[in-house]
Each structure stands twice: as C-alpha cells, then as structure tokens.
Amino acid sequence: xxxxxxxxxxxxxxxxxxxxxxxxxxxxxxxxxxxxxxxxxxxxxxxxxxxxxxxxxxxxxxxxxxxxxxxxxxxxxxxxxxxxxxxxxxxxxxxxxxxxxxxxxxxxxxxxxxxxxxxxxxxxxxxxxxxxxxxxxxxxxxxxxxxxxxxxx
Length: 153
Prior knowledge:
Elements: H1 2-5, H2 11-27, H3 31-40, H4 44-109, H5 114-120, H6 126-138, H7 142-151
C-alpha cells in the first residue's frame, strides 16, 4: 500500500487499485491480511467502498454462476431428450424386426417355431436381427433358420 501511495495517484485511480488488490486478495484467500495492511496504512475510509465493490463483484459472480447452471441444465435436458429419442427409435426398430421375424416364422413353420421365437426375443443386436429377417425368407427349413440364429453367418 505504501508503494502505491508513493506514486501520488489521483484518489479515483488509487481507490481503483486498492479495490483490485482487495478483490484479488479475496480470490486467493488473503483478504484479512490485506485488510489489516490497508487499515494500518490509513485506508479505513476506502475499506467501506472496497467492501461495496467486493460485494457487488460477488453478486455478479453469483449471477454468472446461476446463469451457467441454468444453461447447463437446459443443455442437459436437450441432450437427454435427443438421446431418449434415439434410444426409443432403436428399441422400436428392434421390436419391429423381432415381430416381423416372428410373424414370418409362424406363417412358414407354424407352432414348431415357438421354441425358436423364444431365442429370437433374446437378441438385441439390430444388425443380427436384420440378417435374421433376410434369412427367415431364404431358409428352407426351421432347422436351417435356427442354425443361423444360433451361430450367425
């Protein structure tokens, strides 16, 4: 503080520098130490103004944090909605493929297909289901289809 006073600055400039020092001391956790030095150097008059600036700074900082939190929440909600839509579409596609294969199996092989259908319902891989959809049309027998179901290509 003594060094700053030695520059013979205008009161406003001096106050601005003291305010900046006070804010920085607050940010690095040395606020009380700097306050004691300011009071010891006759800075009591300025402490009130500095405290007002610091509180205003805290308020602005808090508002910025709140705004950031709100934006984060909104972004998270939007991402969640998008992810939910994508997952819903995938689930719908899987269920649709399973149902189509099941209908084909029943229409081609009758009640004998029930055992194979149970295995089919446990598959979650969309590409595997697409392959099985093509295979249910090509397979000449239920056993041939079941081999593809159990072992892939």
